[in-house]
Amino acid sequence: MKGRNSYSKTDKDATFMRMKDDRLRPGYNPIISTNNQYIVNVTVSQNTADNVGFKEHVEKLLSWNNGKLKPENYIGDAGFGNEENYEFLADDVIGNYLKFNTFHYEQTKGFINNPYLKENMLYDKTTDVFTCPAGRKLQYEEDAERITATGYKTKVKVYECESCAGCKLADECKKGKDNRRFTVSETLEKHKELARNNLNSKKGIELRRKRSVDVETPFA
Question: Locate the Transposase DDE domain: which residues (predicted)?
Fold first, then answer.
């Protein structure tokens, strides 16, 4: 099955994917790149996740004509924005306008007004300590390594609350009986900050508007 968790009996190269009607059907995942409504690159993947195929997709474009087709910027939806792809764009000096999975959520009241999210907790960079809404400290505990489906290795920092015992806010802040824990990838956060600034800039807003037409038109 070549790393897949499903395949069709009538087309063994296809993978079962959730379609727009919410039904599982055998299919493929095409990725296209466009420039002024012209398709300049196409790849077709057996993987349901867009972010898994992004690097291979761009590498194909960069391999043509001795790299002379290298794009100045890449803009894409939240399906493509992850640490591996951000690192890839940075290494190839391509402008990062890829949304990450919480880009739009960050702009909602549900995010902004939620004090229990790690992004909204007070953080002291000098001591590397977060402070929760109850005033308790979440300190750095250890580093951990995670390996993605593509084999990419990412290092995250693990933080844990000194003690959640007796906290009246615990039920809203965490699940389970253990102390509140979360992880932070400094590399990912750095790239997200760059992407956030790029996407919200005057140029980024214009590119986002253009993408809605530039990419959808060829599919029509």
Answer: 131-220
Residue boundaries of the structural domains of the chain: 109-185
Q: How far is CA 29 from CA 57, 86, 142, 171, in A?
A: 12, 21, 38, 40
Count Cα neighbours of 131 within 13 Å in the Cβ-side half-sphere. Answer: 7
H/E segment holding residue 149: none
88-111 mean pLDDT: 97
Q: What is the pLDDT of residues 63-74, one digit of tens each?
A: 987 888 899 999
Calculate helix-pair angle for 83-91, 186-200, nearest 10 degrees.
70
d(Cα 192, Cα 101) in Å, to the nearest integer?
10
Question: Tokens for 219?
Answer: 């599919």
Selection from 119, 145, 142 nearest residue 132 by Cα: 119
Mind listing the pLDDT tens digit for each residue in 6-44? 555 677 777 888 888 888 888 888 899 999 989 999 999
Q: Are 163 and 136 in contact (CB under 8 A)?
A: yes
- The model scores a pTM over 0.85: yes
Beta strands 137-147 and 153-161 are antiparallel
| Share in percent of the chain as helix, strand, coil (round to 5) | 35, 30, 35
